[in-house]
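Exercise 7 asks you to align residues with tokens for two separate proteins.
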Amino acid sequence: MTRTPAPPPKRKLVTLTGKPVSIANAKVAVRRSLWWFWGLAGFSLINCTSDALGFGYRTVLGLGVTQLPEGFLPLGQAVRMTFALGAVALMVVVGLRARRFSMRWYVVGMFAYAADTLVSFVLRDWIALGVHAFVLFMLYGGYLTLCTLKELAHDAGDSAA
């Protein structure tokens, strides 16, 4: 008597941007979007270090608060650096908290970065403004995926996405 193997269990699929995607791949997509927060923190740290050492070098991928000129925030280099490092720390914390699929922290990070976009606008740094718009678009895609996962978990009665 020959046994036929049982068919593999069907994987649950979610629809993202019109395409069916497995839940595992959707979680990977959210985690990949979180790398933007850590990347922003890293590039901003490079900008802070460059500013503190007087290199005159900066990356457009960093936070705008790290490039505030002395006239814009006339409180001294140490205070500006503390403010910038606080923003960097916020991005690191957001990345760590949102990695647990926390909608609240993901939204906090998006709003903080959107507010940081205003610095690029005020400084008329159009390239940095374009980069900010692109990163916000990528973060929004991760947010929509996270919303879909949370909704699916809620419908299934599961507390973790």
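Second protein for Exercise 7:
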Amino acid sequence: MSDISPAYRPRKPQDSPYYRCVEDHFEEFEQVYDERFTTKYGFFRTYLKQVIYRYLDCGILHNGFARIKCKDCGYEYLLAFSCKRRHFCPSCHQKRVLEFGEWLCEEVLETVPHRHFTFSIPKILRRYFLYDRRLLSELSHCAWESLKAFLQITVPKQAPTPGAVIAIQTFGDFLNFNSHCHVLCTDGVFFQAPRPLGGQTQAPTPDGQSAAPMHRAPYRLFGHAGLLFR
């Protein structure tokens, strides 16, 4: 007996309290943003309007749809276009998270132990990211270089190379602005050597001395950018 797929149930985003809140109050929020929120959250980025309005059109049939038809039984239904936005749209974000996680597990990650790192910066330096989001990519690069240096020091192998996936996050638990990186890193390094010696070696647990390069990295980043003395 063949497996029977569950019936498609179209969602109705316009009926949710979240959707109604955005629809009713976004224009007012935009009008008062400069006066009430710029100091704490940075300037209002113009692409946010595109994100909001695409979310308000997401999943609603009269904004566009595709007709899906089963070639075997002839059953068909209408599938509303989605906004494909991350974070702000709960439906599209969840789908992208699942697809990205599946892709990582099947195509990217090796079957070796991994470790989760959180790479943060001192509060006094966080405000620079409010006004210059280009620093976020530098922060990601800084996190990678710091972890690579730590792992290469602690695992004495020839040409050691770790692997990592880095995600940038700009908010904390209470939705406060907090630029930091989440890093899924191999719990050790890969090294190249004549077989059968090539492979992967696990790294020790970080201590104060071995983690010193990671502690100094944010200051090097801002020093090179000329921001520490502003």
